[in-house]
Amino acid sequence: MVEFKTNYQSLIENKDWKTLKFALNEFDSIQIAQIIEDISEDEEIIVFRLLSRNQAKEVFQILSHSKQEQIIEGLALNLKMLSNLLNDIEPDDRTAFFEELPGKVTQRLIQHLSPDEREITLQLLGYPEDSIGRLMTPEYVAVKPQDSVEHAFEHIRRYGRDSETLNVIYVVDNDWKLVDDIRIKEVILASPHQRIDDLMDYRFTALDVMDDQEVAIKKFKDYDRVALPVVNGEGVLLGIVTFDDIMDVIEEETTEDFHKFGSFQGAIANPLKEKALGLYKNRIVWLVALVFMNVFSGAAISNFEAVIQSMVSLVFFLPLLIDSGGNAGAQSATLMIRSLAVGDVKITDWYKLIGKEIIVSFLLGVTMAIGVAAVASFRAPEIVIVVSITMVLTVMNGSLIGLLLPFIFTKLKLDPATASAPLITSIADICGVLIYFSIASWIFGI
Predict the structure, then answer these.
(1) Within a domain: 170
(2) Is 256 exposed, middle or buried (0-12, 13-18, 19+ CB in 10 A)?
(3) Over the stretch 366-417, which tens digit does the pLDDT of each residue have?
(4) How many domains does the chain have?
(5) What is this structure's pTM?
(6) Which domain holds residue 165?
(7) Per residue in 112-144, pLDDT tens?
(8) For the purposes of burial, counting CB atoms within 10 Å of the CB of 222, is it exposed (0-12), middle (13-18) or buried (19 or more)?
(9) For an engineered disulfide with 88, which of 45, 57, 227, 427 has Cβ 3.0 to 4.6 Å away?
(10) 27/108 same-domain check
């Protein structure tokens, strides 16, 4: 692999296509995709065009979306290869690629599909964004209850080559309604003369085509399956969703939530390949909003000028105290956002968690107060009581803010990940300033 990476450049420069094509046959699709990701746009098209039709299909599905777009643009003059590629890739992968493109580009590319593939693509693109319908593939194997095992295997051998997976065989009635699913192992171990309905237990779980993709994530987690069938409201089998498709969704959801929690406008796939202007646009909105929010911290401090002037040592502990509250809030929010996302916690559970969070945050605050009191006893012993009480209250306050904001956002039909760490920290900072100087004013009578 390393040797090829160092030699492919010279093969391209010398136009030694035969040797390059032979070398590509020695590597699997993942290795070739890694090579294409690392080379320039001109070189990637040359390498891609040297791949066999089957290699091209497998490699394309592994590439990042940006690289896929570059490949499609590079093949614009080679209409036959472009048409073969678009028709060969799996319908769900093709749909995922198309839905990221501008509408006009998608319409142009759809014209290169065969009538059957075009019909499938338009059907999948017709489902709501982020629905299971966008995620499913219509390539599966289905048999009838009255079929014999021997006949079922003949059917599998005839049509199974195009199926996304053969781990599970689906059983449908004459109206194509799903009645059961059977693991292939059970079919293999059965007698050739047994009927399929002899193997059925009528216990299966299915996804609704209109459900959100997060429903599929939860069901895959709960049922530990490699594939799940997708049905419409009448129970008709429309397609299947496989585990590898769900893994892609999980990665996208995790990336999106992670960026939202960092106050990004949208997810950034790769900062190395993202344009500087794109990075700027993704980051500037929240940062500007937080600038104006932090003005309130300054306003709060200005109201306590007399306290600060009479006890200057208070300023030394200000960053430490308010940052502790923000950090505690970020911890609490991270835990809640994750729990809400995976379904461990529901929106109605908020009141059950408050009592527990009060106890936990109090213990955290007391522990941290001991530490800050030790520092204050050397630096400014006159304010030990102030900083100790403030530490307990700011940690408790920040923790409760971090706990409640994700629930509030969920109730407002917003993504709880939008309750980002910078937002929580800013709110906790404002509250921390008010708590700190209010306690100082009360204790010192200023």
Answers:
(1) yes
(2) middle
(3) 999 999 999 888 888 888 999 999 999 999 999 999 899 888 888 887 766 6
(4) 3
(5) 0.56
(6) 142-243
(7) 888 888 888 878 888 888 888 888 888 888 999
(8) exposed
(9) 57
(10) yes
